[in-house]
Structure formats: C-alpha cells, structure tokens
Amino acid sequence: MKYLEIMRPADWTKNMFVFAAFIFGKKLAGAVGGVLVAFGSAVGAFVCFCLAASAVYIFNDIIDRDADRLHPEKGKRPIAAGTVSVGSAAVMSIVCAVVSLIGSYVLVPGLAVIIAGYIGLMVLYSLLLKRVMILDCVVISVGFCLRAVAGAVVVGVFISPWLVICTFALCMFLAFGKRRSEIAQLREASESFREALAGYTPELLAHMLDVTSGLAIACFVLYAMDDQTHRLFGTNNLVYTTPLVLYCVFRFSALIQKGRYSGPVQFILNDLPFQIGFIVWVVLCIGIIYVA
User: Fold this and answer.
1) pLDDT per position as a tens digit, 217-232
2) How many domains does the chain have?
3) Alpha-carbon separation of residue 119 from 14, 58, 215, 218 (angstroms)
4) Whose CA is closest to 146, among 128, 125, 132?
C-alpha cells in the first residue's frame, strides 16, 4: 500500500488533459470501431502519463524528503516519514519510467518522444528549476501542455493553438494558486519548505492569478469564436459556456487564496460546487460539439 501511495494516484487526475483532444477532436462520433480505437489510444496515453508522472513524483519526493518534513501534510508521505526507504523508492521510480516509455512507444512512437521530454523536463525541474521564481510555474504548465499535445498525437487530430495557449495559461493559474495556498498554510515557514516561495508575496500572487485567469478565459473565448472551430463543429456556441468557465475559475481563486485547500488536486477532488460546475460544462461542451 505504501508503494501505491508514493505513486500519488490522487494526482493522476492531472493526466485527464490527454482526453481533451479526444473530445474536442470529435473522436466521440463516427463508426463504433473507430471510436473505440481512439478511446483506447487515449486511455493508453493516460496510463503511460500516469506512470511517467509517478516516476517523477517519487524522484521529487526523494529529493525533497527533508523539506517535506516541514510541511503539515507532505511530512506524512512515506518517503519523508521514512516508511519507504530511499533505495526502494528509487527502484520504483525507474520501473515506472521504463514501463511508461516502453508502453508509449508501443502505442505511438511520437508519444514516447513526448513522455521522454516530459520526464527529462520534470527531472530538471526537481533538481534545479523549482528553485527559480516564476520559472517553476512555467515548467509545470509546459508539462500540462505536453499532456494535451500527447492526447492529440495518439488520436491523430490537430490541436488548436488557442487550446494550447489556454491550457498553458490555465495551468499557470493553477500553479500560482498552489503557491498562494502554500504561503497561506505555511506562513513564515514557507521559504524553508520551498525556496522559490521567498520571491512570492500574497499580493504578487493575487495579481498573477488575475492575469493568468484572464488570459485563459480570453483564449477559450477566442478558440470558441475561431473560424477553424466553426468549420470543425459547425457552430461557435461553445462561447456560451463561458459563464461556467468563469464560475469555476473564480471559485478556485477565491478558496485557494483563503488557504482552504493545499492545492488544485485537493480542491478538484473535494469541492462539490466546483465539481458540479465542471461536469455541467463538460456535458454542455459535448452536447454542443456532437449534437448541436
């Protein structure tokens, strides 16, 4: 059970980004065989990214085990708590990475290239880039964009540049939100836990949250109104789901700045109003794309 815990299955929700291309690429429609193949490919990419992400999480927990002991929640993680040895965790990390690369290559060679790039970038993040203010959040956001691109690669669809930029801006927003929650929860101990937090202030992060949320929403609206979107879906009605996007974004911003949640994953898994808003948005998107 401890070995499953260090893989952080709760954080696998982040890999749902790989399904964006499956939905927005209209792969839900068509012959049953084609839909099943596309869905199976998306699921395969999801599993490969879960293993790759777990490899990185374990590596990062090994590197951060001393700092994690200062955190009220992360100090309970098996590696930081000492219930899983560093050697065993290292072997687990390598196994996850190797299986992920082999599986992705068997699925689509291009996916293996993306996952190898993701692992390399995240290892560099764990060793160095997470200590650099702002760049730490940029790297995390690039990792999410790679997930979205990977989803497009495995199902064989074109991904709109507006969606890529929207994904990047949204993930910057989530990353800055996590930094804000860390400062709210740890207060004076925040710099000891994460070196990059020394450069952030609540006021600066509030400004960054405003800018990135605004950019993400603007990019979504531009995507919804784009001529290529109209040609693909036969409508620009996705723009009318913007109020739900605003609700979900603003709710996250409000609660995360109060320190109610330790980060995006805890928020997404536990905040019922957000979950309802997000599910309604997804259902509306599917209805507009495939039925309207």
Assistant:
1) 999 999 999 999 998 8
2) 2
3) 15, 12, 27, 30
4) 125
